[in-house]
Sequence to fold (395 residues):
Amino acid sequence: MKFCIVTPHVIKGDGQGRVNYEIVWEAIRRGHEVTLVARKIAPELQEQSLVKFINFDVEKFPTALVKEMMFSSQSAAWLYKHRHEFDLVQICGAVTSFPADVNTSHFVHTSWRRSHVHTARMNLNFYGLYHWVYSTCNAYWEKQAYRKAKVSIAVSDKVKQELINDVNIEAKRIRVIHNGVDVNEFFPGVSDREQLGLPVEKNLALFVGDIRTNRKNLDTVLKALVKVPSLHLVVLGDTSGSPYPKIADNLGLNDRVYFAGFRRDVAKIMRAVDFFVLPSRYEACTLVLLEAMASGLPVITAASAGGAELVTPESGFVLADSDDVEGLAIALNTLALDTELKTQMGETARIVAEQNTWESKAQHYINLFEEFVNDEHYRNCCDTSPVEQPIMLKA
Fold:
């Protein structure tokens, strides 16, 4: 079979890029030909005989919005000429204005724009205005793209509900395939805390995420930490422009919170701590949650974080309200004091992660692609007229 995947990146370095990276390898293993219409792909994929790379270099244009509009326009023009060459076209969201057979939703801008923690609501300035325009444009385009697709794939139950409630996609046209995890990179073990620059002989929780905004919810974690004096916290994330070091100082937590900055040795750090906490206020499907579970860590998260449905009561805690300071403090205190429970939850978390490997997720995708190609019902179920965009740009 011949598949065409349209996406910005096909690399291991980010969520959407990693999903497509694994899909391509599974397609190769089954002998399918894959054409990647993208801005960047991993070098090792370019060396594969079954992979063809159609590159649209839009990096010279200013702002992410203009880059994406240019890529959408150019990729659509290319697909109008070459669509007949493929058995199936897969896209991600509103990445192109050309209608797809399968559209994978990694993020729903319509829902994000309504969030009380949207960037524009937190930044009443030009930066916030730009993000509001960005979300508004993408919300408009993605509604058309999802409605034109014959099948939509949601990366979490949360995303599926957003597609149903906010984009009006029928549930029967949506499949859920969660993101995966590399269980060979993230695994249980013991790392030398001293070598990693971490405090020794302390109860250590770990928080990983963007700490320049409040979406990941470090503020609630810090407030809860005040109530758990036996616990210390390691925070991984770029501190430039972040308000949280000062907040920690104001809360009297300087001796218990360690801002380690942006790190590339996250897997090693996960093997050095006791458990993981990320009660994100808004998340489509966070990769780091499964990475922590694969590392044998109990996790504390919130229902507002996509992928939280993978956290069972035996492997961690899921807060109904991401801003529940008392509930979070109780969960933190429980794991800080109950060593046996922490060990049991960590072992179960690893089992859950092993059931959600990247390889298994890629198999689900290719199984769906093959089912689609061989099922006339899918191929003829939807309108395939072009997705409207307000302007068509040419380089």
Q: What stands out?
A: The CA atoms of residues 111 and 162 lie 6 Å apart. The longest helix spans residues 126-148. Residues 382-395 have pLDDT under 50 and may be disordered. The two ends are 32 Å apart (CA to CA).
